[in-house]
Amino acid sequence: MIYKSCCFTGHRNILEKDYNNIYNLIKNCIENLILEQNVVYFKVGGAIGFDTICSLCILELKKKYSDIKLILILPCKNQHLKWNEKDKELYNIVLENADKIMYVSEEYTKDCMLKRNDKLLENSDYCICYLREKTIRGGTLYTFNRAKDKNIKIYNINDYLKYINFNLLFYFKEEKWKH
After folding, report:
1. 148-176 residue pLDDT tens
2. How far apart are CA 124 and CA 4, in angstroms?
3. Count of the separate structural domains present in the chain
């Protein structure tokens, strides 16, 4: 059997109102890839925000699917130094439970983040991302475009999130009219 891999890319700033929906969408997407596409290797870049959500989701799913692997591909060993205590705590939990950790660079360099993103895409069959509309620059857009160029199948969580938020809005408007 041929096992496949999936990488992740997304924004660091996640709106609190979207967190649970994003987590559940990621979980469903990963579970479908495990069950339907033989994806076993999940590569995450270790940033705050979307990457952390993905890592925690994978760790939860490892309890059910013990064969899956969380592979951290990190830009440098000191990326977390300026993070707040909560983000550092979550980062340490992810580090302690990862199956493999790779560093692109020992120290921060001006291009270590992009090199990390390129490394995430290497040998990936799928990319789960969170790219908001109207994003005009940044690492998530860079990685999204590189994944498209490499013909990697992309699942943009934002596309599904818009649908969920639209349906919730429609539901609440409909409920309002019933009274």
Report:
1. 999 999 999 988 877 765 544 443 344 44
2. 7
3. 1
